[in-house]
Input
Amino acid sequence: MSFHVAGTATPRGGRKTAIGSHSPRSQSPRRRPSDASRDAAADKLRAENEKQRKLIEEQQRQIEALKTAAALGTEPSKANNRGDATDALRTKLLEYQAQVDRTQAQLQGLLPEMMATSRAGYLRSLPELIGSPPEDPMTAWKDEWIQLKAEAYRLSGQGEATVEEDLAYVREHDNFEKFVAQGWVQDDIKALMQKGWTYKRAECYTMLFTCLEALARAMNESDKCYVASTYALCEALFAQRRGAGEHAGSKLTRQLSAVSDASLRSEDKFDNLYSNRTGLYGLTDREARWENLEIPDGTGFRGLTTSALTHATSDERYFSEEGFLVIVDTDAETGEPLLAVAKNSDIICFESAPDDEHGAHSAVETSHSSGDFPPNTLFRFKEVREPGSWEAPGGVYPKQRLIVVTATYQPPNLGVVVSDEGGRMCGSPVTLSYNKRETFLHGLDDLISKPSLTMRDEFSRAMEWRDWKGVTYTLRMEWQYVNGAAKRTEGCTPGTRDDRNDGKTPEQFMAVANAFIKERREAGHGTLLAAEYAYLTLDETVAVRLYSGPAFQPINTFLRQIAPLTDQFRVQVASHPSLTFSCTVGHICRAIRKLSAVATPEEANAPLFRGVRGDLERAFWLPDHHGMVCAVDMAFMSTSLDREAPISYMQRKEQGPNVLWCLQPKMESDSGFHVGASIEMLSQFAGEREVLFPPCTMLIVRERKRGERASEARRVSSLSISSEYVDPKENFAVSEESNKEKEWCSVEVLPTFL
Output
């Protein structure tokens, strides 16, 4: 195959055009906490906001009083007066609401951005990014060629004056039939076929390689104009990855679970590939986020998901002591490349690995010494090697840093509600959102990054509720308790309150937790988090203490009530001074990140349990359009290391069925986090051995392994919504259990959150 590097720009009709710089904005630096003056201004605006809220409530009360009086019947003259008064009050109501809106806008401008609680890098499927594929993308992509090629010319600086002229040029000179007939195109197709590619895939890859900048632009903007081309390119590359073998069919329904065992052999050798990070045709030209690869987000994650195809090489001719070499031009007579140094550029090393349950991890070989990763690949920072300390292909030691990354990509078509009856450990099936991966992806950072109230404000409101045993609580009562010295109290609904914490203050709770975190970090756990983000604040400590007691009910009720809302409705309700718990939720989420980060491998793999009072509806067992059987808990999800804890909250046999989620956590992967936070050291009820997961945690039902099922039933990936109902015990890790008083269905699930 021709010697090339992705990104080489050539004139119209030539070989491969430059990959454009249309990519997502680079990750902005995190903002530092506000200074005293900014805090004072924010407090003043909060007070003004509260004042306006009370005025609005008073105006609404007066309007209702007038409406009630009018309904009772009055003399015409008095009715007219009341009508005028009602109109005046409505006018005032709108004026006050406008003042509240202005105050909230000013407040948002002053508030600092809080640390993110969702990981910046994670994989979304192509259907989530650009919509569903056409029936046969390997054929349909050709229908997009004229528009695609015309845009590729424009983005590479070779366009005409207008879009219409670009389209006309391609129709006349570079339509599909003329372009594919060029000698160099046919040579490249033949070279790929010699490596085992089918003609259809080789043709697709070679042609679309010349339009990568336009494809990247469309994916980055979630523009569906090139949906067939994007699916076709990704399908061709996925089918030709290492070890795909005979299982790499052309149907988009192929999943990693259908890959031959040969692709999973750990002894397979995968060569490292390289590319320059910056400089001529560098990775940052195509994806600006490569610039911030080493900057961790608030969860400690370092990496990015690309919109563009990523090309790299292991050819020793690209390396010298000065650095990575890139093609400037080729010799007209010999065809050999002319090289130039990409000076002062880090070199990225792409480390490949065999497929696993999380996806594919190897570059797709496109020549004897080069390979590609498809669009929508997650690259994750692994390590840095200093200049001159590492050996490049050819035996040279470049005087540039080497940054090693791992890669993960998925099949092109891979795409999942709770009242608190029964306590934190046992919810209701109606509170789970079935097959809602979109909810899982949406997360809460848009609502909790700039809370309009402080946590103290949120718990100063007049609100009361009852637990499932009828005991009454108030926000002010709970705030007062957790901010004072803990008091051992017997006879509470979940048991003895603060049994081993009598007299302990919030500051002492924080000190104990941070001493634990420090000890774990010194042992090598949780070091991905920068020290400034690793330790609990007093607010985070208090927030966890609040949630571990009766206050979990209004907090989770708030989360579940905003869950189905979208756009401005979601924002307005989540920030409403009378309703919001955004500040408290944010503190709890950040505490979960910090505590879960220091879990040992043994703790991370320990099974957890949560109960559901009721049965799962039959539709739950049918996979969604991503091939997943899952549920998303919209609120914080309390689980226990003690299997008997959630069972104790279940309903009795005569009351109805139950479900026991058997969570199978594990260490963090490229698809997200899978480990909750043990809050036992902070909990008001430590005997529950609680492990807490953040809102929007997705529970993915585990399929039975081979040999576990009695008969060979259909796999999840082969089912669809129109399928006949299949007994879940045939396909999934499900079992029926009971004791003398209760019956339940145990379901094994993998927890995942971002």
Q: What stands out?
A: The chain has a mean pLDDT of 79. DSSP finds 24 helices and 25 strands in the chain. The chain has three domains: 46-110, 126-408, 426-752.
